[in-house]
Q: What sequence folds into this?
């Protein structure tokens, strides 16, 4: 019996070790320093990887990959420019895009049944800024500005984990947000500013959408008869002193004082941005991060310019921490943290499992003579 007991303990220990091995480090792929094009970098990326794009103008269209983060250095100076024939960016499930200006497309970003994150971007000069079909992404802290028709077009779109929140949606040619078909979405804490016809236009089938804690100012109409704009919404001048042609001043100007406080004291309009590698420098760019390039940056040798990175415990308030990986020293976004076993409350069980795994197999031999003889006979006759 004792032999069977030790065998069972060993099996459990080995199972725990297999299931709770520390996750492998995600990769950070830099464009254009290590991979020349954004699409090539995305095609090399796997789930959890980050593609970091330096300042410059890049040609679209691009197609995102599931669970991959695409991050520019700053929306002011990292530009994705389309050819006006289709979407500049096609979304992917679980992906994230941030810190870009996205312009010159029929649609700036196209999301079809895709739940992803779109944040800290300027989306301007397209026919439609963001086109969502069926599923609503998390659209937050963007400037959706001077698109020729609608800023955000939701076509039979439902809120699951997404929302339209803390954006400035301004000066679009028809409406800020168009809710078509049977859309049912959450629109909260945004500033709708001088859209030419409507702040929010809702079809009859979209009348159950929640439009709460927004500020409507300067639009020809805040909404139509099916836009449920209730008393939680405000109608105050956000006090923008000047609006630049690129829309960046919306992030930094016109806080509007206490008037721009939504429900529960939450801010209406854009939040403070967090940049990769630091805040924007005095030259209008972002603080650069140096990399030591090495042929040993990846163990496989297949993509020597793709830097494997791990990270330390996540910093607070969206700050970025860094941990030096073998052969590279690139900081890694805290929000991509992989929990180690010690951080998940499994430290004690795993330590016991490790000790049991080392000794368990040997202990299966330490049984009394009678039990050993019986078990050996059973093995021979099976």
A:
């Amino acid at each position: 019996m004792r032999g069977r007991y030790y065998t069972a303990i060993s099996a459990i220990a080995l199972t725990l070790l297999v299931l709770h091995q520390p996750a492998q480090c995600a990769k950070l792929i830099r464009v254009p320093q290590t991979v020349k094009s954004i699409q090539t970098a995305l095609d090399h990326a796997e789930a959890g990887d980050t593609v970091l794009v330096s300042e410059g103008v890049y040609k679209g269209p691009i197609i995102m990959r599931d669970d991959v983060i695409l991050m520019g250095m700053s929306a002011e100076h990292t530009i994705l420019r389309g050819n006006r024939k289709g979407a500049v960016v096609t979304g992917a499930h679980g992906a994230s895009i941030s810190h870009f200006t996205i312009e010159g497309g029929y649609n700036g970003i196209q999301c079809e049944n895709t739940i992803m994150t779109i944040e800290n971007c300027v989306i301007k000069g397209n026919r439609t800024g963001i086109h969502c079909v069926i599923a609503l992404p998390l659209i937050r802290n963007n400037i959706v500005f001077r698109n020729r028709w609608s800023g955000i077009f939701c076509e039979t779109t439902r809120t699951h984990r997404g929302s339209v929140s803390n954006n400035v949606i301004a000066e679009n040619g028809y409406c800020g947000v168009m809710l078509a078909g049977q859309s049912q979405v959450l629109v909260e804490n945004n500033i709708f500013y001088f859209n030419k016809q409507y702040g929010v236009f809702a079809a009859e089938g979209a009348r159950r959408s929640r439009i709460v804690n927004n500020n409507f100012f300067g639009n020809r109409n805040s909404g139509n008869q099916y836009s449920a704009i209730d008393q939680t919404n405000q109608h105050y001048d956000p006090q923008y002193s000047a609006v630049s042609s690129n829309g960046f001043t919306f992030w930094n100007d016109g806080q509007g004082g206490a008037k721009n406080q939504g429900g529960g004291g939450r801010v209406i309009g854009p939040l403070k941005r967090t940049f990769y590698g630091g805040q924007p420098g005095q030259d209008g760019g972002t603080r650069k991060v140096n990399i030591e390039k090495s042929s040993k940056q990846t163990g496989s040798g297949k993509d020597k310019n793709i830097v494997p990175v791990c990270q330390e415990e996540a910093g607070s308030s969206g700050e970025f921490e860094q941990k030096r990986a073998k052969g590279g020293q690139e900081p890694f976004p805290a929000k991509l943290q992989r929990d180690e076993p010690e951080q998940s409350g499994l430290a004690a069980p795993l330590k016991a499992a490790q000790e049991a795994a080392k000794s368990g197999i040997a202990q299966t031999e330490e049984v009394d003579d009678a039990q050993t003889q019986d078990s050996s006979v059973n093995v021979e006759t099976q």
Q: What stands out?
A: Helices lie at 2-19, 38-44, 249-252, 347-363, 369-381.
